[in-house]
Amino acid sequence: MTAENIIEVENLTKIYGQFYANDHLNFSVKKGEIFGFLGANGAGKTTAIRILCGLSKPSGGKITVAGFNVYNQTEQIKRNIGYMSQKFSLYDDLTVKENIEFYGGIYGLNNKTLRQKTSDLLQKLDLTDKQNFLIKDIPLGWKQRLAFSIAIIHDPQIVFLDEPTGGVDPITRRHFWDLIYEAAFSGITIFVTTHYMDEAEYCDRVSIMVDGKIIALDSPDNLKNTYQVDTMNEVFLKLARQKIN
Amino acid sequence: MKAFKGFVIKEFYHIFRDYRTMLILFGIPIAQVILFGYIITTEINEAGVAVLDNSKDAVTREIQNQMLASGFFKITAQLSSETEIESIFRKGIAKEVIVFGANFEENLRKGEGSDLQIVADASDANVANLLVSYTTAIVQNYNRQQMADMQIPMQIEPRVRMYYNPELKGVYFFVPGIMSVILMLISAMMTSVSIAREKEMGNMEILLVSPLRPIQIIIGKLMPYFLLSFVNAVSVISLGWLVFDVPVNGSIVLLLAESMLFITLALSLGLLISSVAASQQVAMFISMLGLMLPTILLSGFIYPTENMPLWLELISYAMPPKYYIIIAKDIMLKGVGLRYLWPETLVLLGMTLFFLIVASKKFKIRLS
Amino acid sequence: MRVILHLLKKEFRQIFRNRIMIPIIFVMPIMQMLVLVYAATFEMKNIDFGVMDADKSITTNEFVQKLSASPFFNLKATSNNLDEANENLLNDKVDLILVFPENFEKNLVRDNKAEMQILINAINGTVAGISQAYLGEIIAEYNKQIIAEFYKTNVGVGQNIRIQAQFWYNPELNYKVYMVPGILVVLVTVIGMFLSGLNLVREKEMGTIEQINVTPIRKYQFIVGKLLPFLFIGLFDLAFGLVIAKIIFDIPMVGSMLTLFIMAFVFLLVVLGAGLLVSTFTETQQQLMFVGYFVMIIFILMSGIFTPVESMPIWAQKFNLINPMYYFIAALRMILLKGSTLADLQYYFYSLLVFAIVMIWLAVWKYKKVN
Lengths: 245, 368, 371
Known about the structure:
The complex is a heterotrimer.
Chain A: E1 5-16, E2 19-30, E3 34-39, H1 45-52, E4 60-65, E5 68-69, H2 74-80, E6 81-84, H3 96-106, H4 111-124, H5 140-151, E7 158-162, H6 170-185, E8 189-194, H7 197-200, E9 205-210, E10 213-218, H8 220-227, H9 232-244
Chain B: H1 2-16, H2 19-39, E1 47-53, H3 58-69, E2 73-79, H4 83-90, E3 96-100, H5 104-110, E4 115-121, H6 125-146, E5 155-163, H7 170-201, H8 203-208, H9 214-244, H10 252-276, H11 280-297, H12 310-316, H13 320-334, H14 338-367
Parallel strand pairs in B: 1-2, 1-3
Antiparallel strand pairs in B: 3-4
Helix pairs in contact in B: 1-9, 2-7, 2-9, 7-9, 7-10, 7-11, 7-13, 9-10, 10-13, 10-14, 13-14
Chain C: H1 2-17, H2 21-39, E1 47-53, H3 58-69, E2 73-79, H4 82-90, E3 96-100, H5 104-111, E4 113-121, H6 125-153, E5 162-168, H7 175-206, H8 208-213, H9 219-249, H10 257-280, H11 285-303, H12 314-319, H13 324-338, H14 346-366
Parallel strand pairs in C: 1-2, 1-3
Antiparallel strand pairs in C: 3-4
Helix pairs in contact in C: 1-9, 2-7, 2-9, 7-9, 7-10, 7-11, 7-13, 9-10, 10-13, 10-14, 11-13, 13-14
């Protein structure tokens, strides 16, 4: 690991039978940046993110996360990352407070830290008076912000967000991104997949994936310049069309 | 109509693609028929017997040999004193101990009569009873051989004829029962759980806003299960016939028609459960406790309802499978027709109508 | 250790918050005890019989009277010809028919033996067999009486073997004594296997398992956290069921409760391991339920809970060597009814222990955090 690269990926490949879900991906993520991982549904984003989190083994490639390789050091990786997936990962039948305590507990926080973190978190998210509500009874936007906060409760170096804001309106998304900036400001590296192009604008750098391959990787401004368009959405459409032709 | 057709096809794909469930669905009836067919017999095979032989002479040896030769018994221990009996039973080594009195052969020859004691472990009452009566029969048979030349006093000799099932095959009785269990399992249980699942996952709402009419949705959901159930009923009947020679003495058409009636009844029960259950787990446990248990236990499937306490016997009259089992076994084994079975058929018909009406009422309320 | 405590806290919260769990934990044992024990009985109380008596003699009359006097047999119909008798059998009015031919009494006196026919509805073979055995006993009794009188009047004829039978542990041959332990096994198995399996598959369905997998939690911590709650519930339900059995059926409990719970503990490990194992290769609760039902029905039917192992074919008896339920039910009956000690039950204990180790090892091995 070079001093500033926290994720290094060389020739990451994942094959299901004949199908290349990830086809020789190469990229690296710098410490403290917000890295956007863009692509249409089915482009292979979730596959890649699951490999980086140690949930799935790659078919080939040299991949390190926080200095550990994903083949045999997955447990060390897990200690240093947070993860929030598109499929909802809080327990519906536990309350807000119980969810925080549970996840904090299995990350091994001691009781004192856990109590402190819980009350800070409830305050920050404005959930103090709703701490005894069951998760299924609070709105989706709040659930997402809570899930994110829980994903970084153990102060990881990196947090992976797999389509974290699916199904909510742009204003709620904006609120969510405020939390992301705050986390990034405190030094956590953010690795986020999305297919909302307005979110891509918020990232420091984005990679764009089509059919299992990365076809572009740069800062949003540079990408817009290169393709001479005004929005990331147009960049994406142009690239996608290029690929089809 | 086109939308409906598409929907039905989707439902079929949905079910038939889940190969695990399909495997189990076809595996269950086959395994059950085979298990019941082979396992449940009224005979005794190689039951463990211990012997305490205080005489060790030719006669006691001969009686032991005859016991072994019968195939009912296997001698698992030879004891040397009465005190060992207790520990033999406690360790589960034998189910019966035979105690030959001292001077067995001698006493017999002298005409004083010798003593034979059978001690049975009656923690399993039925087996104990059977073992004692088998042993008694073997010993009495030995007696009779010895007395062959003697004038035997007046005896009543029963000639037993087993009607409808001369070899006392368990499977004859179980095939109709298994059919009712399978039909309940697929039609009622699977239907209720799968509709509850759609509700839990939120798919039901998507369907309800589609141009399909609620009745079409219900029919589309139920059709695959109807077909599956029917195929399974047919396969149980054929399996019973091919492997165990379980006959269909009556009209097969009538049997299949009655089966369809019962499937419809079970489907409407499943629908009813799914309309009151909020989650899969709830649907599952209502089905388990409310349908499967009664179907297996209170329908006369294994245990005759006449032997139950009155309150249970009364409950059993409310169990739809009871009537289906009577119908199926009478058609198959006794070969009778509607002339005998119209009361049961009428009850099933009435129950079906009742549940259909209640289920559709409940469903409509949920929808609006 | 602290991680496991957090897991346990969460599991118990979820279990007790789930409205369906309380009825399962408390109502199921009661229901099973009341319904199953009363329903699952081959104790024949009401054998309805008919008579077709072509002889109409004192002997036949006496015999029918004797039969009706027995608590098991009820005279339901007398018919004048065979067709009428068959009709009664056909519409289930009677379970069996005694047919006395003409000259029955005359033959008995003249030839010293007379034949009678017994027609039994054998659709349920088990019931038919038991009815026949009961009837046979009464006939044998009747014959014995005749013999006894014969010996009295014919001094000098040699006596033969006198048979005396004793029924230990359950002299009244009470069927419930046999059934209750069986029902307890079913109860513990259902609780252990379905609850643990459903719980895990539910986490899969909801997606929360991913979130757990991405934490540094150890495999053994996770599995212990998942199994312990259901181990407690299973043991609790066993105790609850035993109390009900004692109160309602006054089942003998000769052996030590400690021995019983030690065996139950090991058996529950097997069952929980099985639930866990099934959950690793199923994706939905529905699938788990069907796979679980399928496996369970086979093991229950073969184990001797409902029908005695001794009446199964030899291959089925051999199969039971790999059936954990067979060991547990046998051990449970021995402890409760005969007071067997752990030393008596060594073989059963070690067999169950091997199953527990193998099953849990398999489940842990199949359960992967990475795919």
